[in-house]
Amino acid sequence: MKTEYQKCMDGDFFTADPEMLQITYRCKRLLRSLNNTDMENTSERKKIMNELLGSIGDNVHIDIDFHCEYGINIHCGSDVIINMNCTFVDNNCINIGNNVLIASDVKIYTATHTTDVAGRTNTPENKKISGCFCRTYSKPITIEDNVWIGGGAILLPGVTIGKNSVIGAGSIVTRSIPENCVAVGNPCRIIKHLDNI
């Protein structure tokens, strides 16, 4: 029988059971430490980021305030900037490549709910486990190498941003964007192909 965490990672409906709540509580404690640590204290910040994230490369900068759900599902390559006020809802994996720029106020959401009202409501049994009234499932998000995500962009569950691509500020990415593109808008759409790569 699958644990609730396994269901979460497999894209099935899951309930925040005690094990998952402990993962969340651990994450929130580490986030408080990270967001309260002086920006010049790079060694302490690096130590906290190594503990918080699932994996992290070299030369990664995470500005304050940063927010996430579990932390352990965020996998970050090298030479990455995550600017101010970003929120990563990492109920599933968020895979970030190398040489990635993520601007201020970017939101990355792996969690979602069904549009069916009855399907969105938790069973009485699951309510007893978590107290939560809604059913949630999640899909991974991938940001490949050399990507720039503009300020205030929102990435929705299951999308991939192909290498070298740029997502314009304020865009809402509802489906995957291929390599070597500039894409903007709501919903985000390709406006230019980068042929000189």
TrEMBL record:
InterPro entries: Hexapep, Hexapep_transf_CS, Hexapeptide_acetyltransf, Mac_dom, Trimer_LpxA-like_sf
Keywords assigned: Acyltransferase, Repeat, Transferase
Domain Maltose/galactoside acetyltransferase: 5-58
Recorded GO MF terms: acetyltransferase activity; O-acyltransferase activity
UniProt cross-references to SMART domains, sorted A to Z: Mac
Transferase as UniProt keyword: yes
Function of the protein: Acetyltransferase implicated in the O-acetylation of Nod factors.
Family: Belongs to the transferase hexapeptide repeat family.
Protein name: Nodulation protein L
Native source species: Parabacteroides johnsonii
The organism's taxonomic lineage, starting at the top: Bacteria, Pseudomonadati, Bacteroidota, Bacteroidia, Bacteroidales
